[in-house]
Each structure stands twice: as structure tokens, then as C-alpha cells.
Amino acid sequence: MIANFFSKTKPATIFSVVVLLFIYYFIATFLLHSGELSLQFLVKKVGFFMWLVLFLLIVSFIVKKNKLTKANSYTLILIVFLLGIFPEAMFSHNIVFANIALMLGFRKIYSLRSGLDTKLKLFDACFWIGIATLIYSWSILYFLLVYVSMIIHQKLTVKNLFIPVVGFAMPMLIYFTYCLYFENATYYYDRFNYEMNLDFSSYTSLLKLLIPVLFLFVVLIWSLIKVTPKVVSVRNNFKFSWDVLINHLLISIAIVLLAPTKNGSELFFIIFPSGVIISNLIQLTKSKIFKNLILYAFLLISIGLYLDNL
User: Fold this and answer.
1) DSSP for 206-267?
2) pTM as predicted
3) Contact 132, 142 (CB under 8 A)
4) DSSP state of 92
5) What pLDDT is recorded for position 192?
6) Please, where are the H alpha helices in 111-155?
7) 271, 260 contact by CB (below 8 A)
């Protein structure tokens, strides 16, 4: 059964996750983003696929290092299912690259729980958020997550208050200097285009976005209702990480709502917190049937979406 197979982290599960992502990616490439078949086209697609694999590896590192779930591969397989359900998320280069930069920042935010090298972690987290903001401007909202995390982990001091600002400003200053040197300051200012799109008509497409999004949020709400009381009742550091996760999800939803492009690519921002939260629901339940039901539901929705595009 699928839940039992991914209940542990081992080379076979990691390999299976990457293979499934490969299948989703290349089927979507030819169904949704087909171009002239050539060696250059294939090299370009394979090259970008490797960035998605890097994203998964960073996710795996963050989850394992910060013990956001138990020793299983549920988060990875859920993230791949979500990429399969929202295939446009795999093809927006700016959003993918921004999320890779953000993940490098998130690994510092979630590791604040350790209490070690707090100032360095705050600087590094906001440095990477600054880079992500240059790639995708709405990533700036994650700057709030740093301060929320400081409050949750009780790291909010006068010195720590200004370190994130310095870290965030560093890539901005470096990039501005670069643009100024080449007399192209306009290109720098164009990076901060906070155009909003509150038209959700694209979400009315029944199978493409409406059903998958509704299903995801129903499972997310159910996960929060079931897991949160359990987390709060146990005296350990995970409850602080859980609070950070919830705020992470809320900020991600805000970015999705404000995103100028509404084609499903913006949903990449909610994939990581969603995967971790739902993974905690799966590992919490004792019913093997329920575990498999959730995972097979995500799988079947993704298959249905691809069949609809044939």
C-alpha cells in the first residue's frame, strides 16, 4: 500500500518520488507546454527539471533537520502530488527560482528553535528572502514570517529587531549597485512591481483548479483541526514549529490571493507548508485505510487532470 511504502525515508522512496515528479513534469511538458521537439528543447527542460529536484532535496533537508514530521517521506510525495495536480506551478521559472531561494531562508527560520547562532540565522533568512523578492516581488511578505518566528521562539530583542532588515537590504544593495554600474537602474525598480490580480475567474475551471483547490483546503482545514490540539497538548519544541507552519501557510495564501497571474503557478507557494501539515495528519492517524485514502485521492485527482487534457 502506498502509505506503508512512504512511511519511512529510504533510497527507494526518494528515487520513487523523483521518478514520479519526472513523469508528471514531462507529461505536462508535452500536454501543456509543448514546443518544437529538438535537442535544445529537451536539454532546457531536463535542466529546469533538475531545479525542481533541488527544491525537493532542500525540502527533505528542512523537514528532517527540524523534525517537522517523523522519519517518513509523506511530505515529499505530497509535494510531488501537488505539483502534479497544479502542473503550471512547475513551469513558472520566476516562481520556482524564488521558492528555491525562499527554502534556503526557511531552513534558517525553522531552525530558530535550536537557539544556536540566532543572529546569523536571522541575517541569512532575510538575505535569501531578499533574493527571492528580486525574483518574485510578492516574496517580500515572508519578511513578516521572520518576525513572527522571533516572537514564537521568544528571540525578539532590540539587536535582533534590526538584523533582518540588514540581511534583507544586502541583496537589494548589491543588485542596485550592479544595475547602477551598467546604467540600468530602471531594471532594478521594475523588480518591485506589486501588481495585484483579484480576478479568480480562472478558478472556476472545474477540474483544472476548482476541485483540486477545494480538496486541498478541505484536507488542510481537517489537518489543522485534528493535529493542532495534539500538538498543543504535548510539551515539546514542535508546537513552536507548528505555530510557524500555520503562519507560513497564511502568508503563502496571501501571496496566492494577491498574485498577478492566476493560472495555478502561484499555488507553488503553498505547496511546502501544505505538504508538511497534511503529513502530520497522515502520521497521526492510526487507520491505514484513511492514510491510503488521502494519498490515493491526491494521486487520482492528478491523473484525472492529465486525462482531461488529453
Assistant:
1) IIIIIHHHHHHHHHHHHHHHHHHHHHHHS-STHHHHHHHHHHHHHHHHHHHHH-S--SSGGG
2) 0.94
3) yes
4) -
5) 84
6) 118-135, 143-152
7) no
Please state, in angstroms and rounded to a whole number, the distance separating the CA atoms of residues 256 and 273: 13
Q: Which amino acid appears at position 112 of this protein? A: L
The CB-side HSE value for 154 (13 A sphere, CA atoms) comes to 4
Alpha-carbon 99 to chain mean position: 6
- Region 228-234 average pLDDT: 88
Give 40-53 pLDDT, tens digit per residue: 888 888 999 999 99
In whole angstroms, what is the distance from residue 49 CA to residue 58 CA? Answer: 15
Residue 46, by phi and psi: left (phi above 0), alpha (psi -120 to 50) or beta? alpha
CB–CB of 142/129 below 8 Å?
A: yes
Place of cell 519578511: 143
Run of H or E including 59: helix 39-65
Q: For all residues of the chain together, what is the average pLDDT?
A: 90
Which residues have CB under 8 Å from 199's CB, separation 6+? 262
Domain ranges of the chain: 2-308
Backbone angles phi, psi at 253, to 5 degrees: -65, -40
Alpha-carbon torsion angle 53, 54, 58, 61, nearest 10: 70
d(CA 85, CA 31): 14
**Strand, coil or helix: what is 46?**
helix
In this predicted structure, the answer to whether residue 310 has a pLDDT above a threshold of 80 is no
What span, in angstroms and rounded, lies between the C-alpha atoms of 72 and 82? 18
Q: Which of 65, 136, 153 is CA-nearest to residue 98?
A: 136
